Amino acid sequence: MEGIDSWVTKYELYLQVEKNYSPHTVKGYLHDLHEFLQYSFSSAQDNSLMEPHNWQVRNYLGHLRLKGLSRGTIARKLAAIRSFYNYLLRQEVINRSPLDLISTPKKTKQLPRFLHYPDIEQLLEAIPVDTDLGLRNRALIETLYASGLRVSELVSLDIDDLNLDIGSVRVTGKGNKERIAPLGTISIRWLKRYIDTGRNNLMRDPHTKALFLNNRGKRLSDRGVRGIIDKCVNEAAMTLKISPHWLRHSFATHMLDRGADLRAVQELLGHASLSSTQVYTHVTGARLKDVYLKSHPRA
Known about the structure:
With 299 residues, the protein is mostly helical. It contains 12 helices and 3 strands; from the N terminus they run H-H-H-H-H-H-H-E-E-E-H-H-H-H-H.
C-alpha cells in the first residue's frame, strides 16, 4: 500500500483538477488535514494514518476544544479530514472512514454583519479621489457593493469581463461557475473614471488584463483589498472593523429590504443553494420587527 504522503499528494491534485477548488481553498483543506496527521503521528497513538481509529479522531477534536477553537473552526477542520478519508474510500484504498461515527459540531448561528446605507455613503464619500489609487479604491468598493461580489471574484476580474454599455460584469465564482452580475449607474460612472485615468496610470505592462491593479501595476490580491478597506474605514473615521464580505452582506440585505425576490438575490450572489441566501431573511426580518416596534401605536 502506498504511504500517506503519496495519497495526500494525489488528494491535492483531486481538489485542484476534479473539484476545481481555488488555490486558497485547496491550501486551507491541506493545512487542516496536515494538522490532524501531525497530531496523530506525534501523539504516538498509531503509526497507521491511512486508517486511524475512531477514538483518535475524537481525541483530536478534544485537543481542538482545549485550544479554545470555535465550533465553526472545528467543523471546518473536521470537514477537511472527512473529505480526505472519503476520497480514500472512493479510491478503495480503505474499507471504512474513521469519521463514520463522528458528528460535526453544530455551528453557533450568526447573522451576517452588514452596513446600513448611511454607513455605506459615509465610507464611500470619505475616499479621496484626486489620486489614481483613490479612484481605484472608490471604483473597487462601489463595485463590491453594487454587485455583491466575493473578494476572490473581484480580484480575478479582467478588463474584458466588463460590459459598461449594458451595465454588467462576467464573474467566475466558486466551482469555476460563471454568472453575470449587474452594475449600478453609480458604480459604472466610477469604473469609467478609474479605467480612463487611474488604471492607465497604474499600468506597467500594456498587455495586462487585470481590472484592479496595485501601485506596482500588478493584479490586486485578496489581502490588498482588505488593506484598502481598512484604510478607507480609517479615512471615514468609522469605529467598525469592516471586512470586504460586509459589503456583500450589505448588498443582499439592502436588496431584500427593498423588496427583491429571494431567488433573484440567490442568483446575483452565485449561491448554489437557496438555504445559503435565506440567512438574510433573518436579518431583514429583525429589521422589520424593529421598525414595527418603533412605529406601531400598540406595539
